[in-house]
Amino acid sequence: MFGLFSFSVVMTPLGPVVSVMVSVAVDGPYSYRVPEGMVVTRGSIVVVPLGPRPTLGVVWGEPKDNFAHNRTKDIAHVFDVPPLSEELLRTIDWVARYTLAQPGMVLRGALRSREALDPPRPIIAYERAGSPPERMTEARARVLSVMDDGFPWAKPALIGASGVSAAVVDGLVKSGALRQVEIPAPPPVLPPEPDYAPATLSAGQQAGLDMIRAHDNGGFSVALLDGITGSGKTEVFFESVADALVAGRQVAVILPEIALTHTFLDRFEKRFGQRAAEWHSEMTPVQRARVWRGVLTGDVRAVIGARSALFLPFRELGLLVLDEEHDGAFKQADRVNYHGRDMAIVRAAMAEARVILSSATPSVESRNNANIGRYAHVRLESRFADAALPDITALDMRIDGPEKGQWIAPKLARAVFDALDREEQALLFLNRRGYAPLTLCRTCGHQYQCPECSTWLVEHRFRGVLMCHHCGHEERAPDVCGSCGATDSLVAVGPGIERIAEEVATRFPGARTVVLSSDMGSMRQIRDRFAEIARGEYDIIIGTQLVAKGHHFEKLSLVGVIDADLGLAHGDPRAAEKTFQVLTQVTGRAGRESRSGKAFLQTYHPDHQVMRAMISGDREGFYAHELEVRKQGGLPPFGRLAALIVSGNEHLEAMGYARAIMAAAPLAEGVRRFGPADAPVAMVRGRHRIRILVQSPKEFDLSGYVRFWLQNSPPAKGNLRVQVDIDPMSFY
Ligand code: ADP
Ligand code: ZN
């Protein structure tokens, strides 16, 4: 392992002028002078003056230009940390080029902790010094006996272990019996132990692991671990984690959902005897700093985190695991529009590391790569310990639908009663937060809309508000119609999970119920709810996608999907795939322990290809069909897509600008352009949104094309903006 001052990095000093990538929104690196006595190399983290402000940056290499060096400013400071690795710098360049983001903004994602760059503050501790004090009390004696182990003790630990007050310790210091010393801060986590508690793999799991190992060439490779929920994929990739650790390399497991981290950390600790370091947006700056620095120095060997962990400063990255690799949450959609799965593959390729993509419902893209042999295709066919897959039934809402004013069909209600009788748990799934997606006035027809977005306001009855799910706008739920003033005239249209909870309360009055969605409190509160469910403290769970992911509840034997069609209707080429994935995941929650589970899909389209695949359990048929559809349409993974979103305060102006961009489009063979057209959600946060969609053949450099196109388009003036989304995942 690397101690702080033993970086195994060959420093090739650069100078006297170098290029520095600053972590702000600029297009490329700037030149700076290396002052006398300072040594920097490619990857050194520095502070440079940028305009009036000192700015964090990274030495990128030799300067591009060779003139005007007399006017270049000096690098202000170089931090005493190892330089960022070559592979990370190349990943940053690649991501910027591919996504058309500014490299400085991508770099900012890698420099997420400013505090980490300062030396960690040492810990004040005490050790025995010379002879015992002249005045010996019982309390003093206790302290000294604790310290008989001869090690330095930090004050809080010493007080805790000897049960004395701080004054006693201070008195011993004053009397000269104890001496204050500084000890280095401990690493954030201890190294995991690869052979701490390996699982005994089933024959199927072992075969999968053998296949993963057989594909290990010591460098870059990708394996798709494709197995139904509960088939034991985690146990298999844990063995690959162990292999990488034994080989002296760092490992990261990337999860789509922060709420899953804790369960996963516990599982990791059971397997490896130590906790992995965690990395996500809910950590404190101090925690972040310790992990970031530990990753950079090599003290941290394993990280479990969100997609931003892909940009951590690993030095010896050996394995990236993406759990639930199909999950749309891996796509980041703010300043830098990258897809975590694709970036994991890029980073691993740069680092000569391995990738394991794990999923019960792989993305169509990954399945295609496995089919054509680009990825090793590792299948786990059966559930561990022969737990059965749930028996899935479609409830045709046109025939078997619920009574007016209800959302739970009679057959599903019957099954809930049966589960309650057997003292098992039922999950009612609806991927819509709040009480109702629309509030309408019966008298005048007024629909409550967001003032800033072209969306309906969703009623959240628990909190008594109407809320926009796009911009967060909230207003108090009204009693009288804001448009015509009619009283008792407002109706809620359609269900959200709160409304299902209301129905459950009246129809299953004795049942203990819990409602769970991402807006229901902090990560800790949600974690507590999950733990309570796992302990069987609830009979009926009502939840959104949050409960569909990863969790595993022993007593859960019934899943009812309130609206299986939700998500099928959009102009999204992945609508069928996404629906198949979420339905498979949520129904897979039923019957994970050896009891057999049941699932019901409430649908108006029981003959839809997705519903048929669900009911017959024909996942292979689903993938084959979906791949064929994509091939016919030239859609991913057989073609490429990019979206340009033009936005502005005035519709006319934004549309005019979008037309001007369209008119500047370079011709290229096989490239098709659609639009400009108002986006399905035509206004967000007061800005009008206009879409242009570009489709190209697979082999085509679509990023390069769009960059060239925009360089040759009129520049965005005033409040106008163009956002580029290469490989868009959402089409709203
Ligand atoms: P997946 O990741 O494919 O959904 P998991 O790895 O979570 O499946 O395994 C499902 C359950 O079976 C878990 O409770 C896990 O601990 C258990 N399990 C899987 N493989 C083994 C094994 N080889 N030995 C013991 N328990 C196992
Ligand atoms: Zn809004």
TrEMBL record:
It holds the Pfam family DEAD. It catalyses: Couples ATP hydrolysis with the unwinding of duplex DNA by translocating in the 3'-5' direction; ATP + H2O = ADP + phosphate + H(+). The gene is priA. SMART domains: DEXDc, HELICc. Keywords: ATP-binding, DNA replication, DNA-binding, Helicase, Hydrolase, Isomerase, Metal-binding, Nucleotide-binding, Primosome, Zinc. InterPro entries: DEAD/DEAH_box_helicase_dom (IPR011545), Helicase_ATP-bd (IPR014001), Helicase_C-like (IPR001650), P-loop_NTPase (IPR027417), PriA (IPR005259), PriA_3primeBD (IPR041222), PriA_3primeBD_sf (IPR042115), PriA_C (IPR041236). Component of the replication restart primosome. Initiates the restart of stalled replication forks, which reloads the replicative helicase on sites other than the origin of replication. Recognizes and binds to abandoned replication forks and remodels them to uncover a helicase loading site. Promotes assembly of the primosome at these replication forks. Binds 2 zinc ions per subunit. It is an enzyme of class 5 (isomerase). PANTHER family: PRIMOSOMAL PROTEIN N. Its cofactor is Zn(2+). The keyword Metal-binding applies. One of its GO terms (biological process) is double-strand break repair. Belongs to the helicase family. PriA subfamily. GO terms for cellular component: primosome complex. Residues 214-380 form the Helicase ATP-binding domain. This is Replication restart protein PriA. Its EC number is 5.6.2.4. Zn(2+) 2 binds at C450, C453, C468, C471. One of its GO terms (molecular function) is ATP binding. Zn(2+) 1 binds at C441, C444, C481, C484. SUPFAM superfamilies: P-loop containing nucleoside triphosphate hydrolases. The keyword Metal-binding applies.
